[in-house]
Amino acid sequence: MEMYKKMTDGLNKGEAGLGIEQCRMACGGHGYSEASGLPKVYGGVIAGCTYEGENMVMLQQTARYLMKCAKRASRGEPLSFSVEFLERKTAGRLRVGMDEGNPEQEIENLLSSLEHATRRLISDASSEWDKRVSMGESRERAWNGVTVEMNRAARVYTRLFIAHSFHRRVISSPSAIRPVLTDLLSLYLHYECVDMAHHLLHDGHCTGDQIKYLKKRLYEDLVKIRPNAVSLVDSFDIPDRQLNSVLGRRDGNVYEALFEWAKNSELNYTDVLPAFRHIKQMMEENRAKI
């Protein structure tokens, strides 16, 4: 379980870093300023990817575990809850869109498709490793030869683990907030499936039209969540002092706060910077030599 925590924490920090960078660019020049608080938040979050070991090392640890589980599944041995999907038969065609009007079944279909992609990547990596060993390579050399595929399988598995954890938390949430959280879960799963479309298309699990449908549902989810977006962010209840951002203030007085921040900046303590008198003297001396 500790390995899952480290792996998911590392992946979440990386995704959070990308999200912060997108927010910074969306704020234009103000996002680049320290007044936004985003540069400091980015520096703190992105460092989390390597606090307890560089992500590639943890990906390899996860891949080794997955290869062992794949062998156990092939022998019919019991597996832990996090990898029990390896025991299930590979899903046929993608069922997304076939149960429209039934959001619970739609979510199950999305999770099934993520499981399908993860199962295939793990199986392909394991098969390639076994093939190299059978051709006479040492297990270590064979492993190094399929490291890229192993890492890819570990990354997709981690995303599946997060999706399952998200789903379990939503279905066990209080009924008053479950509809909004279900919308969030739907958005997350549609995004993940669209982002991994190449894996779903690879073996004919889905068609191009189905990927278009997933994108359409993704945009519909964004429209549904928009009215609740501010409330969802405020639900974290992060105080202004901790956020330390003129752009994310609770009262929304962004430009007034930005002006106050600029006035209190060390660069604006005086109308003319003290160093200018030295520059002025140098300019006058050089002008006299012309």
From TrEMBL:
Acyl-CoA oxidase C-terminal domain sequence ranges: 107-283
Family membership: Belongs to the acyl-CoA oxidase family.
Keyword tRNA processing assigned: no
Pathway: Lipid metabolism; peroxisomal fatty acid beta-oxidation
UniProt-recorded name of the protein: Acyl-CoA oxidase C-terminal domain-containing protein
GO MF term set: acyl-CoA oxidase activity; FAD binding; fatty acid binding
Source superkingdom: Eukaryota
This protein's record includes keyword Chloroplast: no
Record-level GO BP terms: ascaroside biosynthetic process; fatty acid beta-oxidation using acyl-CoA oxidase; lipid homeostasis
SUPFAM superfamilies associated with the record: Acyl-CoA dehydrogenase C-terminal domain-like
Domain called Acyl-CoA oxidase C-alpha1: residue spans: 16-67
Sorted UniProt keywords: FAD, Fatty acid metabolism, Flavoprotein, Lipid metabolism, Oxidoreductase, Peroxisome
Cell compartment(s), UniProt: Peroxisome
Predominant subcellular localization, coarse grouping: other
Cofactors demanded by this protein: FAD
InterPro entries for the chain: ACOX_C_alpha1, Acyl-CoA_oxidase, Acyl-CoA_oxidase_C, AcylCo_DH-like_C
GO cellular component annotations of the record: peroxisome
